[in-house]
Amino acid sequence: MNEEISKQTIVDNEHINLLSLFQLISGIFTLAWSVFMVLYFGFIIFIINLGGKFDAAKNQIDSEFPFQFMGIIIIVWIICLLIAIALGIAKIFSSKFLKQRKNRTFSIVISCIECFSFPYGTLLGVLSIIVLNRDNVKNVYHDQE
Hints:
With 145 residues, the chain is mainly alpha-helical. The protein has one domain (12-144). 86% of the residues lie in helices and 0% in strands. It has helices at 2-51, 55-64, 70-100, 104-114, 120-132, 135-144. Helix 3 crosses helix 4 (104-114).
């Protein structure tokens, strides 16, 4: 019986270490995606401004592109960017907390949020929730407090 508990503890610790690594990788990719969003938005603004430089294109752009919606687009883009940055940072903190065996609730909340990122985030989120809800893992977190 003691040997089974010992083996399960080793397996649980290995699973938590793997989840910590994957959370870190996911957080880094999320932050990298945020940088890509900034570059893409800059490119779109550049193209819109470039189109206004040509007389033939200017008349066509003025009649086709509703510039009054640009403010709404910028606001939505900034909100999405801030959410992505916050989520990336939260994933990195979750990785750190998993490694330290602290803040189990925070890691579960981040795992639930990750479930919306199909397909890899869903897989990582579900596996994290499963591992963090094991009785042995709960005991490890309670012992750390």
